[in-house]
Amino acid sequence: MKCLIVIPARGKSKGIPKKNLRIMNGYPLIYYSIQNALSLKEHYDVDVAVDTDDAEIAEVAGMYGAETIMRPKELSGDHVTLDPVIYHAVTEAEREKGIRYDFVMTMQPTSPTLKADSLRQAVKYFLETGTDTLLSVYNEPHLSWTKEGQSFQPQYQKRVNRQWLPPHYKETGGFLLAKRDCVLENSRIGERVGVFELSETEAVDIDSDMDWKLCESILKKKRILLRADGEERLGMGHIYRCLSLAYCLTGHDILFVTNESYTLGLNRIKDSFFHFRTIRRNQDIFEIIEEFKPDIVVNDILDTDAEYISRLKETVARVVNFEDKGTGTGYADCVINALYGGKPERNVYSGFEYYFIRDEFLQTPPKKFSAQVRNVVVLFGGSDPSDLTRKVYPILQEISQENPGMEFHIITGFGYQHKDEIKEDIVRRIFVHHDVKRVSSYMKQADLALTSQGRTIYECACMGVPAVVLAQNRRETEHVFASIVNGFINLGIGAEQDDTAIKNTINWLIHTPSVREEMHRLLISKDFRQGQDRVIKLILGEEL
Which of 53, 335, 345, 536 has its CA 20 to 30 A from that of 179? Predict the structure, then answer.
């Protein structure tokens, strides 16, 4: 098989000026079609030529490995169709080389998202089926209408859902492959025509600025593997953060990986409808990486070791870790430790400026300060591993009796194992809410919060809710943001605190509005709205 691939690229483009040479995701637009065409040389005997009337396009085409055929002026007008252009290119190439090609492929430079593998599969299909002409198409069935005279007529027999409509194939600019005998001055279509269906993302043709932006977005698309676990002892924060990341990484291919034995986290991921795989130990992830071939791996599994991260770096271009103080930090491309203090170092980004706040807290305005405490919210995370909810429940009952008219709203998370033991006490105005979808709806009503020292402290700050903090464990005490300088009263590890001390602290804040007002001021002085953007850029390896 001897094939000529012709890439027609006129210099003058009115829709998008200088379109074929404009930079698309780091390369001139014409680069993508040239590289796809050249990829066929590994499997077939092909020549690749750019047909153009523009000297600059010819120079760039040669720089990327394509031959050039200069188009005569009479074939460069706005109303000239491709048939005579391709015919001229083929006859010129055959005359110069003294050969006759068996097949001719036309590839438009305006289809940069076409994949080389799809092109190879199309050629294989063409040769196996023996068709005269093979067109790249996209199947887009829709209820459609046409105009006949002065009236509009349906182009369907029955109104049904889209999936039940007959195929409606639209040609794309990806390729048109034809036997040489079918390439004439006014046609490239033979008697036996076949179609090769492309995916929606590969079928984009650039005709407008909107098409250009869409193609750029597709070419920037990354394959991202999110590694996180969630269970009672570990908590659910890692799962919730990675879910929030996934929602903000729309447009990229996302795959969750979680330990199969941690059913709390696994079930939450299942409920999200993201694609996921399970493993038994961290090392099992490498089999998934071999198959998924991610561009980026995000580890949200606390401390990593050097061996694990080093091996990841041998197979993945970028590795990003969250809340990592292990030996693996020195080998990762980026470590985001928003819960810890310190200034950013080489590859470690610490402090509240790098906290990835959930969308709901960015959408909800902060609570205005109230001198009177009418509403107290109690929340100790997705699983409350130290069971602080049960510890403070009798304290709330006592405070309620001493403060008539005050409401207490206890929020228990998806992974809390003792939710059935926490009962509402309507008489004492203690209400219990399990696995709520929007925590911000309760926090925006609160004048005071009782919470653990994890991610919720940032949510309290974003909402301007003064809080008494009880850490779940010793590691949480390292989360330095929950301090008085930022608007929190931190009592240390919750399980070690005396009930009377907890009660007295809450009562003191209830009856000292000047202190709560200063706490409120400190909380809302922090800007969390840029954190999302910073974190996404760090994950994708973009400049801050």
Answer: 53
Statement to judge: residues 198 and 288 lie in one domain: no
Q: Which residues of 267-289 are buried (b: 16+ CB within 10 A; e: fewer)?
A: ebbeebeeebbebeebeebeebb
Closest by CA to 454, choosing from 522, 520, 385, 381, is 381
Residue partners of 283: CB distance under 8 A and separation at least 6: 308
pLDDT tens-place string over residues 123-141: 999 999 999 999 999 998 8
| Domain C-terminal end among 176, 193, 218 | 218
- Rounded Cα distance between 133 and 137, Å, is 13
CB 445 within 8 A of CB 373: no
Last residue in a domain, options 218, 250, 266: 218
Tell me if the pTM is above 0.85: no
Is beta strand 348-350 parallel, antiparallel or unpaired with respect to 223-228? unpaired
Domain housing 343: 222-357+534-540
Question: Within a 10 A sphere around the Cβ of 27, how many other Cβ atoms?
Answer: 15
pLDDT in tens, 167-215: 889 999 999 999 999 999 999 999 999 999 999 999 999 989 999 999 9
Q: How far apart are CA 406 and CA 397, in angstroms?
A: 11
